[in-house]
Automatic annotation (TrEMBL):
Predominant place of localization: cytoplasm
Protein name in the entry: 3-hydroxyacyl-[acyl-carrier-protein] dehydratase FabZ
Protein's cellular compartments: Cytoplasm
Database matches in Pfam families: FabA (PF07977)
Organism name: Sphingomonas qilianensis
Single GO MF annotation: (3R)-hydroxyacyl-[acyl-carrier-protein] dehydratase activity
Amino acid sequence: MSTELTEAGDAGELGAFDIGRIMAALPHRYPMLLVDRVTRLTRDRSITAIKAVTINEQFFQGHFPGRPIMPGVLIVEAMAQAAGILAVESLGLAGSGKLVYFMAIDGAKFRKPVEPGVLLQLDVEFVQKRSSVCKFSGRATIDGQLAAEANFTAMIADPPQG
């Protein structure tokens, strides 16, 4: 059953989230948690989040020695985690243990290297929202300059039993 996207009013605006609320929405933990702050979330519509990229990130040890650059796949993962927060909050699933799994990544493009010392802004919006499958469009920017973009599809599922 598809949910039509409508113009969000003040009732859909959830504002900023600290790391505690992010961790309540996502199962990810260090070193895979790639969202440090949510600056704005409008339920059923969009999210703006921040990843503070520091030289202390594990991946910079090998990507690349002498020229540290955040791997593109992790930039897409950061956008996907922001999308996961948007989906969980929009569908009222925070604290439910539900997981958001990638199903597809389309049109990923990388425009600018992401280096240590930047705030990577993650802007993600719903393209289509259903109860168990959602489509998103994401952009990662640094100081307003496009670093990466992608469209992706995710499935909302129960956590594994065991």
